[in-house]
Automatic annotation (TrEMBL):
It comes from the Eukaryota. SUPFAM superfamilies: Protein kinase-like (PK-like). The keyword Transferase applies. Residues 302-317 have a biased composition (Basic and acidic residues). This is Phosphotransferase enzyme family protein-like protein. One of its GO terms (molecular function) is transferase activity. Keywords: Transferase. Gene3D superfamilies: Transferase(Phosphotransferase) domain 1.
Length: 585
């Protein structure tokens, strides 16, 4: 037997070699790495045994911890976790439960609050700190001679994805970065924290996160998927928080981490920035606001029974109950010719725009029958248009027919641009709607939606600057900007760039605001119908081009198509594209 190497490892090798015969007898198998461990090849048997012990000893784990977990980083990462609400650990009966919140809005805010830290593998260290916090809680409970404490915890993972507009993007998204880090932590649990996690409950799973994740079999066997948070009480008992179906205290009230690291700030800057969302701040526009309980246009006559399409919800039913997931407007077909559009994002401004287009242009659109608002929810009743999606029509037809539909679109845009406006906003003096103005949360409600209307382009560009600033935590704006900070210098440059837009000589025109193939149908006679007027209103003349160029589409040649029916504004598009990327990433 070889005598070189670590003495302690040599001792382990000797012990294992002595036990090999009984081990082989128990498992009734002796082949490992092509070597018969029960044969006469003592030298190779020793090599295999030594290799096995080297790879499964504590040495690799200690080496990883030395390189991956400097104590200074752990302290900052733990501060982030305890103040952001991304991790909670509570005692439930004889076990501990760790809550992990994969909250995209919170994580996006962290990148602003802890810019330097998160730039340098920060998300990785935050995830490792969460596992270290759990081991500390479990070991502390055991050190306190709690005979019921186990060195294994239940884990609850709750996904809170933020709204992401369906728009072209370059580079890796925030969600992709979080997903990759999350997947790596799952593997770290398997490799460096074996046996730490028992049962796993995933609340309201996100397909974007779980679809491509390689979850080890032993973790997958113990994982339960729950579509509703309140169903968790059926698995963990009644002592958990009420939002999960229990009758216990809230997560913040019984968080074990508070006892270990001290009481966190009651209202930390992160939570304040998220809860007191800046969209609720009314920005001055110089224009009077308008009550949107009823539409100002006359209802068109129809032979269809629109009473059946006019639901009467109970007064006590609010929008949060009607649309718990807030995934956008709903479309319900009343009969073969009529649909009702209602729910999150639907405003009477859309119906006003449809009425304006139908009475002042020849643009084919769905016929508007009625529109009204009940208990804060808007309903628009319209005809159900029949036709082929623009993309499919384009792909199967000749160049002559393609040019025909582009010519129609050019005429439609010209008709819209002939209607001038003296303000920027929704057709009925409602606020501006667009991806730039809703980045901090998917909230379309008028009471929260406060960008505009604006009396001039100068005020509109200041509104864009305000939207850029509103993505930042409020306390960050209260502090003086550091002239040596890359972040603040970048912010200053983009603010000043946006403020150059009014110097380029624009006019305010009526704009659809969302011209892309998904909002176009082609009838059997080749007529193009324009759908979904929810972004329509009076905008600077460059807005139609920016929005059409930003849409995610089925062909790269779409950009060249756009120029054939919308006047191009290359510089303005480049500026607004940078604004969008800054706000969303």
């Amino acid at each position: 037997m070889a005598t070189d190497g670590d003495p302690s490892l040599l001792e382990d090798v000797v012990k294992l070699l002595e036990k090999l015969p009984s081990i082989i007898e128990d498992v009734r198998h002796s082949e490992l790495w092509t070597i018969d461990l029960g044969g006469d090849d003592d030298k190779n048997t020793e090599i295999v045994v030594r290799k096995f012990l080297e790879q499964h000893s504590i040495l690799p784990l200690l080496q990883w911890r030395r390189d991956a977990i400097p104590r200074s980083y752990l302290k900052k990462a733990t501060e982030i976790l305890t103040q952001s609400g991304l991790q909670y650990i509570m005692r439930v009966g004889d076990k501990h439960v760790m809550w992990v919140m994969v909250d995209e809005n919170t994580i996006r805010s962290l990148s602003l609050l802890y810019e330097e830290f998160l730039r340098n593998r920060g998300l990785t260290r935050v995830g490792i700190a969460a596992l270290e916090n759990l081991t500390s809680v479990l070991l502390t409970a055991r050190d306190e001679q709690d005979s019921d404490a186990h060195l294994k915890a239940t884990c609850v993972v709750q996904f809170r994805p933020s709204y992401t507009p369906d728009i072209r993007s370059r580079g890796r998204s925030l969600r992709e970065n979080i997903r990759d880090n999350f997947a790596k932590h799952v593997l770290r649990i398997q490799r460096y924290y074996p046996g730490l996690i028992g049962a796993i409950y995933v609340v309201r799973p996100s397909y974007d996160y779980l679809a491509n994740m390689d979850i080890p079999e032993n973790l997958l066997r113990n994982t339960t998927i729950l579509q509703r948070a309140r169903d968790l009480a059926g698995h963990l008992g009644a002592d958990i928080p009420p939002e999960y179906g229990g009758t216990g205290m809230t997560l913040s009230e019984c968080d074990c981490l508070k006892n270990m690291y001290g009481e966190p700030i009651d209202e930390p800057a992160i939570q304040e920035a998220l809860q007191k969302h800046p969209l609720s701040m009314k920005s001055g526009s110089g224009l009077d606001e308008k009550n949107e309980e009823t539409a100002s246009f006359p209802v068109q006559e129809t032979t269809h029974d629109t009473k059946a399409a006019k639901p009467e919800p109970e007064p006590a039913l609010d929008k949060s109950a009607l649309f718990p997931e807030r995934l956008g407007p709903r479309h319900v077909r009343v009969d073969s010719n009529t649909i009702v559009k209602y729910g999150p994002g639907v405003r009477l401004a859309e119906a006003e725009a449809m009425h304006l287009v139908s009475t002042h242009t020849s643009i084919p659109i769905p016929k508007l029958f009625s529109a009204y608002s009940l208990y804060g929810t808007c309903y628009i009743i319209m005809s159900d248009e029949k036709g082929e999606p623009f993309s499919k029509y384009w792909d199967r037809n000749s160049e002559r027919k393609r040019q025909n539909i582009l010519g129609q679109l050019q005429d439609y845009v010209a008709q819209m641009r002939s209607m001038k406006g003296d303000f920027i906003g929704g057709i009925n003096l409602s606020p501006c709607k667009g991806s730039i103005f809703i980045a901090s949360s998917f909230e379309y409600d008028d009471e929260d939606y406060s960008y505009g209307p604006y009396a001039s382009e100068e005020q509109f560009t200041e509104g864009i600057v305000q939207a850029l600033q509103d993505r930042l935590p409020s306390h960050l704006l209260d502090e003086p900007a550091d002239p040596d900070s890359n972040f603040w210098n970048t912010e200053y440059t983009i603010y000043q760039t946006v403020r150059q837009l009014p110097t380029m000589g624009h006019t305010i025109v009526f704009t659809h605001g969302d011209l892309h193939p998904g909002n176009m149908l082609v009838r059997s006679d080749g007529t193009v119908v324009i759908l979904h007027w929810d972004h329509a209103g009076y905008w600077p003349d460059y807005w139609e081009y920016y929005r059409a160029m930003s849409a995610r589409t089925w062909r790269r040649s779409w950009d060249r198509m756009v120029e054939e029916f919308v006047p191009p504004f290359y510089i303005e598009y480049a500026i607004l594209r940078r604004v969008f990327i800054t706000i969303w990433k």
